[in-house]
Specification:
This protein is 37% helix and 23% strand. With 73 residues, it is an alpha+beta fold.
Length: 73
């Protein structure tokens, strides 16, 4: 397991808020769109259980944040 494994939807969104993201709207299916004031948007799945590490990494890549920033948020 890597450093980004074991994050739930709640923990992911809590850290996204600390990085400046706010809930924007419901996306397709069970996804949500989160937006930052600079216009950056990310889509997050709203699933029960832990998110796969690759999914969390892809969300961070789309957000333009480093792993260390996310882990310290």
């Amino acid at each position: 397991m890597g450093r980004l494994a074991g994050f739930s939807y709640r923990e992911l969104t809590r850290r996204l808020r600390r990085l400046g993201f706010l809930f924007d709207r419901q996306g397709p299916g069970s996804h949500e769109i989160w937006r930052r004031s600079d216009g950056t948007k990310v889509s997050t799945p709203r699933h029960s259980g832990d998110l796969p590490e690759g999914t969390v990494r892809a969300i961070l890549r789309a957000a333009g944040n480093e792993v260390e920033d996310f882990l310290s948020a």
